Amino acid sequence: MIEDAVREWPAALDAPVTADVAVPDVVSRHQQSAPVKIVALARDLGLRVWTEPLPESLSGKLVRDAERGGPSGWAIVVNARHVKVRRRFTIAHEIAHFLLHRDVATGGVQDDAFYRSHLSGAIETEANRFAAQLLMPWPLIRALNSEGVTEIRDLAARLEVSETAMRIRLGLPT
Ligand SMILES: [Zn+2]
Prior knowledge:
about 170 residues, alpha+beta, about 45% helix, binds zinc ion, Rad_response_metalloprotease, IrrE N-terminal-like domain-containing protein, IrrE_HExxH
């Protein structure tokens, strides 16, 4: 059953399973080739990214900090103890909070290992969807598919995301 779904993932290309929201030009400029340059994107948005050892139970944070922040006054701190694909997802998730939620998260956001925070579940779901959109844009998925990248693990490797994140993006069982 799962194997069938994997074989049929290109169907997601005709009717993307998640409806994407419009992204600023600065975002799409970093989505032209795989993998998406997520740290460079954060910098272009005026954010500084710090990779530091945090407790295992935390993914990362978005903080307003005049000294450690970029030109926007905000910084992302990502857990150095987590593997690279995880850190990339965390950075994308915090970028989502910065772009979509900083007006309601004026004191910053701290995300636990399951991307939960003091913000609502609906806001966290929105941040996860936007993060997936940042790291796995449909045009890049389509381009990789037409280059012959058809295995989920290869697609995930090219985009530097976890296989689980890739499956969720494609609407496949995890
Ligand atoms: Zn969050």
